Amino acid sequence: MSSFLGEDRPISKVKITTLDDGVMIPMNDEKGISRSLVGAADGARLVDVHVNVIKASVPPAPYHVHDVAENVYIILEGTAHAIVDGVHYMLKPRDVVFIPPGVPHAAGSTPDGPVTLIEIYAPVGKDYRRVPASTPIGAPDGE
Length: 143
Hints:
Layout: E1 24-26, E2 32-38, E3 48-54, E4 64-65, E5 70-77, E6 80-84, E7 87-91, E8 96-99, E9 105-109, E10 115-122, E11 129-130
Antiparallel strand pairs: 1-2, 2-3, 3-10, 4-11, 5-8, 5-10, 6-7, 6-9
């Protein structure tokens, strides 16, 4: 069967899950835990979806960039402190952030408590490069 990418491969199976399912793995730098919802193990080849629970008082780090992949953050609970292209943002529940390829970013939490967010990453693959933190150019609330 031919896909829209012109590759011959079988169609992935449908997966239905909940935000509480998935294998929990520690996040890099002991920031918290990540729970995979949809990924390569499910046959997904173009998208990775996971829930991150970042512990309280974790500064936004490491500052990094994806040269090809797009990122989407959907804040579910708590307040996330994100730095995107040098600008600081305090993200609240129901905020949705789109980060295009090539834009440096990092996410953390505030002392108020942990933050839970959905992260969508596409396309899937090894596309992660740490970059030096830039000088913040925005107010802490992104204004």
